[in-house]
Design brief:
Distance between the termini: 28 Å
Structural class: mainly beta
Strand order of the largest sheet: 3-8-7-4
Order of helices and strands: EEEEEEEEEHEE
Helix content: under 10%
Number of strands: 11
Largest sheet: 4 strands, mixed
Strand content: 35-45%
């Protein structure tokens, strides 16, 4: 499934982040993005080259190329429709999609988060 395009530009995927993480092994929890995003192809259990016309549109107006799409393995969760963007500085977990697909809630702590079943 190709990424959804933003309404401002039908060829760009949107991501909005407001915080940063210093560790590349952690995912930034974000509710303003359109997809789960990783910068490491090794995070995708199943993947294929992305050949669509879209790019990842950043809040500052820049865009990043999408190299692959596939299924993300995040601890014991498997999330499809994940984008691999090698030049992305952060890995992003799309919290709204995660909670809807798993019937769960995300609990935010000062330095981490966890997913809790409802």
């Amino acid at each position: 499934m190709p990424p959804r395009s933003s309404s401002a530009n039908p060829r760009q995927v949107q991501v909005h982040t407001t915080t940063a993480s210093t560790s590349q092994t952690n995912f930034l929890v974000d509710n303003g993005t359109t997809h789960h995003i990783t910068n490491d192809l090794a995070n995708l259990a199943l993947h294929h080259p992305y050949t669509g016309p879209d790019s990842l549109f950043m809040g500052n107006g820049s865009s990043l190329n999408i190299s692959h799409s596939g299924t993300l393995l995040l601890n014991d969760l498997s999330r499809s429709h994940t984008l691999c963007v090698p030049s992305m500085q952060q890995k992003i977990c799309y919290v709204s999609q995660l909670t809807k697909q798993t019937n769960s809630t995300v609990v935010l702590l000062s330095n981490s988060f966890y997913v809790k079943n409802l």
